[in-house]
Amino acid sequence: MDAFGASSMVAFALLLAANQVVIKLTNDGFQPVFQTGIRSVVGATALLIWMRFKGIPLRIETGTFGSGLLLGGLFAGEFLCLFIALDLTTVARSSIIFYSMPVWLSLLGHFLLPAERVSKVKGFGLLLAMVGVVIAVAGRGAAGDEASFLGDMLALIAAMCWAGIALTARITPIAHVRIEMQLMWQLVVSAVVLLLLSLFFGPMLRDFSTIHVISVLGQGVVVVFAAFLFWFWLIKTYPASSVASFSFLSPVFGVLLGWLLLGEKIGPGAIAALGCVAVGLVMINWPTRSGG
Fold first, then answer.
1. Number of neighbouring beta carbons within 10 Å of residue 282
2. What is the pTM for the complete model shown?
3. Beta carbons within 10 angstroms of residue 217's beta carbon
4. Rounded to an integer, what distance in angstroms lies between the CA atom of residue 27 and that of residue 207?
5. Is 215 a residue whose pLDDT tops 50?
6. Do residues 212 and 24 make contact, with C-beta atoms less than 8 angstroms apart?
7. Distance between CA atoms of 24 and 86, rounded to whole angstroms?
8. Residue 34 and residue 12: Cα distance in Å, rounded?
9. 104-141 b/e with 16+ CB inside 10 Å = b?
10. Tens of pLDDT along 238-281?
11. How far apart are the C-alpha atoms of 204 and 30, rounded to whole Å?
């Protein structure tokens, strides 16, 4: 990977980590489920404008309706759990747990994707990363009152839903449609599901101000729409293994930003958990060689 690709991946990982801080702060103004539903609406609108500008047809391909609904349902589940998790626990803890997604994707891939069997190195990386998740969930003392077992579990479910999205996009009929339509399925279905579910999670607005509106608009356009398309451009331009190897940076940045911007406490347990997950992710994404 050249300098532009490497710097882009570092920036992308930093953006994902910073977005968790933004979500947590925006939860002060919006109910979490309502926030993520509105974010999907904004992202879908930006994507529709982009598709019209590029002349990309907006149509449902034959045989993709079921897998499209599944993709959107998993997307809704991912962010329903993540946004509530960030309302209950710290950014540092949620980052360590949520960005363990490649662990669960590798496990699923081992059984469902014959070409992606787990090698010895990847297997040790899986074990190490799972140990890190266990340490993060078990050691809540250093995080003070903000630590929440329910929040941790929701972050873990969100990571598993994210892995499910990646797998669905590869092994179901939706894999044969353009990435823009895959994203549209996720955003439209999640917008409907999340906005309906938000009716059952209390008042839509909390300590609301203009900055919270700007935050949701920024998330929808910059993160949900633009960053997603840029990620796929990176995947197409550079080796997928090289791109994936930068995934360990997101939990590292998440912990650092939680400490730097929100004053979250980082105890020895959190550092140990972060180390296990980060090293595990590097090993999971290690290039496979014959005989490995």
1. 17
2. 0.89
3. 14
4. 9
5. yes
6. no
7. 5
8. 25
9. bbbbbbbeeeeebebbebbbbbbebbbebbebbbebbe
10. 766 566 667 788 899 999 999 999 988 888 888 899 999 888 88
11. 6
